[in-house]
Every structure is written in C-alpha cells, then in structure tokens.
User: Which sequence fits this backbone?
C-alpha cells in the first residue's frame, strides 16, 4: 500500500505545492510591507489573480475593486511607477475576464451552465483531466480529478481531490480508475482528458464503466475522433446520447437506456 501511494509525481506535486505556498507568503508580505490593508477575501482574490485562477461573476467584481484599491494606494504612496502599474493591473483584469469565458483547452461556459442548470442537485463530480475548468466547477461542486500530468496535480480547493493516474497502455492507469469508480459515488462524470489521441484509450477500459449509472459527459465531440470515441463507448455500454453545441465546441450527454 505504501509503494502504491508513493510515486515520483506525488513528490513533484508536493514540492510544487510547497513552492506555491512559499511564493504566496512572499506575495502577501509584499502587501504588508507596502502597508496595504486587506481582508481575507481580498487576500484570496489577490492570489487568484496572480495565479491566473478562474473567477466567477462575483469574484470578478471583487477583483476589479481590489485592483482599483491597489491603484489608489499606489497613487498615494508612489511605490511603483503609476503608469506601468496601471498597465500591469489592466493586464491582470483582462486575463481574468478571458479566463471567465472559459473555452479553448478548458470546458466552455456553455457546458458549465448546462451542468448547473440540468443537474441542480448534483454535488459530486468525477473529472478525467484537470485545469482552468476545474476551478470553475469547484465554485459549485465537489470535484475529484484524475490527472496524469504532475504539473496539474494540485489541489485547487478544499472540495477538490486530485488523484495521480499515469498513462499506462494508452490511457489512465486502469487500477487507479477502477479504485476511484468503485470506492465513491458520483452524480456526474466528465470526460475531458487525457489530451489528443490518448482519449481513445477509454475504449479499452469500457468495462470499468459497466456499473456506472450516473450521466457521463464527453467534451470536445465537435472533433471527429472524440465524437467517434463517445459513440463507440455508448454502443459498448448501451447508453444513449445527446449532443449540445456551445459557442465554439460541442459536448455530449450520455445516460443509460
């Protein structure tokens, strides 16, 4: 059991988490040394802005107020060159707005809204892959992420459980996926990884999902290969599916017959 739980990625993840924590202490110390008063909520918003973490509508308004507070404080103290500092704050704000739109490698906002409106009582979600979309989901759900890349193997909140599953035989390590599926119940499963051609590997592990009764969502089915993977998955398990079109991508909701 000890050998199973201890692996290089886990060590790398712990080291990265330590470096992030140390960096955050330095960032907060900068505010203290600058004599900027801040609340715990403002501290959280500040760190999210600097780390590029997803902000929802409410948080985005708080971020705007916080950046204005920093600009006003700098105007009084002259600590930084005001014009350059304004440009820096503007870039932080613009990046936060872009992340709020989601999309690109992340899930689209259309998918996030679909999950929230279609499954209002859902609490636990299992996600294959993790990233910026995970942070958006965590504002509403408890999320378990299966991740193969140590760089993304980080806990993004108190309601987030990120589990390392290296790529093995073309997909996430089957023993890890099996344990995750068998030891917990989920209201919803989201297939949004691994990247590229590795996604077809799920077809070699279809049997692991035979007893799963909750809905399973496949993202990126606007791509032919991903749609074919989803269709073959549904055919093997006798699941029906519906496809929904977002702004730039499409996703499929699958459920038992």
Assistant:
């Amino acid at each position: 059991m000890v050998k199973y739980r201890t692996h290089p990625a886990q060590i790398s993840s712990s080291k990265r988490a330590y470096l992030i924590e140390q960096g955050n202490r330095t960032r907060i110390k900068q505010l203290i040394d600058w004599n900027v008063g801040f609340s715990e909520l403002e501290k959280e918003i500040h760190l999210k802005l600097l780390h590029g973490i997803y902000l929802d509508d409410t948080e985005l308004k708080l971020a705007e107020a916080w950046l204005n507070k920093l600009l006003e404080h700098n105007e009084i103290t002259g600590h930084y060159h005001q014009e350059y500092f304004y440009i820096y704050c503007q870039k932080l704000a613009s990046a936060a707005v872009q992340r709020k739109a989601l999309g690109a490698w992340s899930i689209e906002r259309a998918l996030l809204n679909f999950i929230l409106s279609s499954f209002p009582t859902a609490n636990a979600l299992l996600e294959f892959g993790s990233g910026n979309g995970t942070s958006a989901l965590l504002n509403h759900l408890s999320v378990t992420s299966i991740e193969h890349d140590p760089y993304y193997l980080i806990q993004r909140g108190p309601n987030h459980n990120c589990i390392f599953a290296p790529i093995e035989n073309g997909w996430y390590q089957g023993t890890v996926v099996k344990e995750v599926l068998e030891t917990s119940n989920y209201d919803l499963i989201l297939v949004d990884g691994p990247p590229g051609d590795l996604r077809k590997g799920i077809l070699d592990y279809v049997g692991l999902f035979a007893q799963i009764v909750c809905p399973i969502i496949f993202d990126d089915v606007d791509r032919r290969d991903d749609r074919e993977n989803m269709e073959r998955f549904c055919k093997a398990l006798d699941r029906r599916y519906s496809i929904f079109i977002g702004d730039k991508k499409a996703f499929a909701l699958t459920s038992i017959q």
